[in-house]
């Protein structure tokens, strides 16, 4: 599975709507504003959350908090996609 396939509708093409019923994602913490701190393997979490009707969050308390570690951004689908302007290791999204 590639996360972009979710966004293109590959896994929901024969469904009456373009959403997944339920997804399960891992987090190391849930913040006061309702946002989550993903675990070590983010993988397709952003795409899964965007495509889900219902989300189950598994809080893994055996891992330390990864707050501030991940740079996550969602891109537009083609033809509106723009390049990331990352040129060095110190650059951020």
Automatic annotation (TrEMBL):
Gene Ontology MF terms in the entry: acetate CoA-transferase activity; acetyl-CoA hydrolase activity
InterPro entries (UniProt xref): ActCoA_hydro, ActCoA_hydro_N, NagB/RpiA_transferase-like
A single cellular component GO annotation: mitochondrion
Acetyl-CoA hydrolase/transferase N-terminal domain sequence ranges: 1-92
Top-level taxon of origin: Eukaryota
EC number: 3.1.2.1
Catalytic activity: acetyl-CoA + H2O = acetate + CoA + H(+)
A family per Pfam: AcetylCoA_hydro
Gene3D superfamilies in the cross-refs: Glutaconate Coenzyme A-transferase
GO biological process: acetate metabolic process
Protein name: Acetyl-CoA hydrolase
């Amino acid at each position: 599975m590639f996360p972009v396939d979710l966004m293109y509708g590959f896994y929901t093409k024969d469904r009456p709507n373009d959403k997944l019923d339920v997804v399960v994602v891992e987090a190391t913490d849930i913040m006061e504003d309702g946002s989550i701190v993903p675990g070590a393997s983010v993988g397709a979490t952003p795409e899964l959350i965007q495509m889900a009707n219902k989300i189950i969050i598994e809080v893994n308390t055996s891992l330390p908090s990864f707050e501030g570690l991940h740079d996550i951004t969602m891109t537009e689908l083609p033809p509106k996609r723009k390049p990331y302007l990352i040129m060095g290791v110190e650059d951020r999204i």
